[in-house]
Amino acid sequence: MIAVLALLLTASPQVSHRRVMTPDGVALAVYRYQRPGVTSAQPPVLLVPELGFSRAAWDFEGRGLARWLVERGFTVYVAELRGQGKAGPGLSLERLAGDLPIVLDALKLPLVDLVVQGWAGSVLLASNRGDARVRRVVALNTPLLAEPPSALAEAFLEDGGRFSTLASSPAGAEIFQQLFALWSLFPAGTDRAFLSTGTRDLSRPVAAQLLAWMRQGDLPLESGSVVSGLTAWSKPTLLLLGLADGFASPELCAVWRERSNGAVRLRTFSRVETKEDFSHLSMLLGTHAPAVVFPLIADFFAAEAP
Amino acid sequence: MRALWLLLICGCANLRVVPLPPEAERHRPKTADGWEISLVRYRAVGEATGRPVLLCHGISANERNMDLDEGHSMARWFAAHGREAWTMSVRGTGDSDRADPAKGRPLPIRFDQYWQHDLPTAIEHVRKISGADAIDYAGHSMGGMIVYAYLSQGGQGLHAVATLGAPTRLDWGTGLERLLKTLGPKLVSDDVVFPSQLGAAVSAPFQTFFADGLFQRFFYNPESTSPETWQRLVLYGTADTAGGTAKQLLSLVETSRFTSADGAIDFRADLARNRTPVLVVAAKLDRVAPTPAVKDGFRALGGPKQWLLITRANGTLGEYGHMDLVIGERAGAEVFHPVLDFFTLHEPPRTP
Description:
Shape of chain B: globular
Largest sheet of chain B: 8 strands, mixed
CATH class of chain B: Alpha Beta
Oligomer: heterodimer
CATH superfamily of chain B: Alpha/Beta hydrolase fold, catalytic domain
Distance between the termini of chain B: 68 Å
Largest interface: A-B, 30 and 26 residues
Number of domains of chain B: 1
Structural class of chain B: alpha/beta
Number of domains of chain A: 1
Helix content of chain B: 25-40%
CATH topology of chain B: Rossmann fold
CATH superfamily of chain A: Alpha/Beta hydrolase fold, catalytic domain
Distance between the termini of chain A: 38 Å
CATH class of chain A: Alpha Beta
CATH topology of chain A: Rossmann fold
């Protein structure tokens, strides 16, 4: 009996993949992680990557939040929405936001907990704030207010948000480091390898739309805007901030707490206490993420509803 | 043990107080409530190119933050660029009067006294000596908070202002915040003065033993400030900390409000009334005043304002922490120059 239990606990999670077609004909990629024989009383956790990132943000070379949660009994889904990873092309942020309910419909999940990051997180949450299937949310450096985080970020988007260009030269890798991996600690080579295989170029229209969003301070949506959507946000949310995030700067995100009528709790990381300030990428795949970041996420989802 | 002594002796041997330059003029105007405030004047080198600039330090610090030595001196940098510069020490710090109840200078020393008395006295003195109708001002950390409070209550005499790493709230959900909330009220009271100057001086030789120790993580980035510079700042740029001030500023953590000691004045809310141009400077890796804390003040400000984030992604050669903004090895080019540009931008055209 003990041997069987031990086997179950140490068995690798099964990862299954399926395509979900949107009504406008774009294939989305959804991955299910579950340990064989283990069922969880918790709602499944759905992980959605940042713009330009792929499933690798959550599961890279055997590490990442997806497997970490599965090892602790959660059932996990990773969704690559249009423009991300192996999904079809993404030409509009509003369309990307519309993919979330399509994924939930396809999976027939009555309730999920959601983890989002950055600018993708902002537009997904603002567009889907009324979706009753989303129970709780962890948002990683998710901006409420928009502005270009730096001249370098602006130049990257003006150039079309092409990660492939960054991956092709040491200078490009340095730009990636400043925007996504500033002052970060990774298991050897992870950040460079992620840049090469875990990212995908933004489409020209999405890069332009993101840049316009930053410059104008808000993104109009079919109903309202990102600012109005997040301001009206009411689901229990844990906002995790990495001070070293150079792509979705913490000063653009923290203000969400004040404007959310108590729905958003804030936790900020700084090297003074947590060995890392955490950047966009190190919050996902950094050396200290499993010990510092991931337990907060699991605890938040496991806690009783307030 | 012998090795420890050797390290200490070697460390101390490299440490010395660099005196003020011969051209520095000392002034001691008196506040309306009877405290002499130390000001140091650095005349503009060559023809003056603009208004005088008043420079103010942060908490547990003194005027030497703004003139540590020849290579690390905001005061001398502005003077060399044609701006008469003045450094100041708020009451109880540097060469300003200490509390002495027998001489009518009782505790507590609160943050409110800085903006109600010390800053107005310094501004009036600089205006009187220089003949300027209004002056420019740069404040680091609490020095920025002082001017926020002053401007929020309609303070006059300032033409343009820069704040460097100045927070207006400090409740960001860090573990340090929880510690401050727990221990702060137990340790801090109006009638104490923490001997932070002595503690800093004694510990100065040890503070750079570890390349990535607590001091580096909290206060400065070795990428931008050398260990020797940091040690000098610790040795003679620190000051005792008034319990009354610490207690008042603790409210930024406890209540997330930036208020007068009695809670009656909400500085953050009143900053909307400001009309003085303000440049708000933040450092990407500032762990004392993190960028959200600094941006909070920027958002609260009314009037013309500009945001400057010091980071490699905006063109600096290294990342900056809290103290690097004033003593960093490249602060002249990367911080002071944009501040001067901002002051100049808001200067009316000069008539020939």
